[in-house]
VWDE protein
Amino acid sequence: RLTSLSLQPVITPELVRGRVHLKCTYSHPPSKPQLQYVVLWSRLSSPGKREQIHREATLESFSYAEMDGTNLRLGDTIFCTVTAFTRDTPEQQSLPEDSKGFYAGIKFLPESLQIAEDGKEHVLTVLSTVPIACPGQEDSCKITLQLSTEDLGKNSQLPGPPDITLSACQVDLLQAPCSGSSCAAATVTVTAVTDFAQDGNRVSLIRAEPVGRRDLLWSAHTPRDVKVTVRDLPTGNCYSFTDPHIITFDGWRYDNYKIGTFLLCQSVSRAFEVHVRQWDCGGHRSATACNCGVAAR
């Protein structure tokens, strides 16, 4: 009986004669030498629903399907399902075994980000799970992605000024051997804009769009956007005013009536400081100093 053979089908990407293919491989049980296989290729057409693309009967322990941009497109999640039977008794089939879903196309890692207005840079990787194919120009083979951001505002309702910045507006995915789940990768850093406004947590999207490709497979592909939630941080304030009264970030109050140049504030974690210059503005009757200059780094 062939109820369960533990065929363990796996999908991997491969370039065949310069064209992008997916290869479904499965284990051949050593105790069953005369087996034939039926391989069913399908794609996720909607959540929980699959659409059959291609069916093949073979004696081999592998099957190929081409990413042709029509039946199998970039952006699809693809499965292969394998059933085995002996040539003597084709009516006795094993239980069908599914591969894991293989996402074919460009994607971001992580798929979403939660960051804060603290100046920190967050690395975002953009990768292709399938090989980059450029027939006739292998030495300069790449996919160029145009990156853009869209601010959705607070609670994804109120549009506003940009809340995030990227370290690059374009990245290139260069042709490289496939390793793990990546056949080409690039990185970009994402930083939240410190806007000194108490505008609540805001949501932005990062979008990537292939540019300059004329072939059907890549030109029609739009990767999934990255959702970035920016946590609003309160802004600190300090003051030096009139003859100078000083209020510190944490609310302490004192006076500095002296004349000269002083260090008003300095960060211990980054290159940030503010100098003030005070001059005699009280005349002969009172010893009073006033701010007459400021310098910030």
